[in-house]
Predict the 3D structure of the following.
Amino acid sequence: MVNSSVAHSERNNSSKRPRKKTLAELKDEESSLLKERRVLEREMAAMRSNLERRRAENEKIKRAKIEFMRSTEEEDSVKFALPDLNVPFDEHTSDVACGC
């Protein structure tokens, strides 16, 4: 009885194996995989190009931001006196610099 179960098990294993592909099927599969590879390579090249374009744009924006920050700092460094509006105005007060 053990021998018959072993023979039955071997038949199940052989039936679970995938069917061997014919030469024509293999060539078709290879051809479709090569086409897919070319498409993917083109997509990757387009993505690389887009990435480089965006990096260049990002660097340009960063340089513009730095230049803007520098110009704002220079404007902030120019000091001028504003009157303190909390202090009552007195014509004799000379503490407040006025551009009159």
The helical segments are 2-16, 23-77.
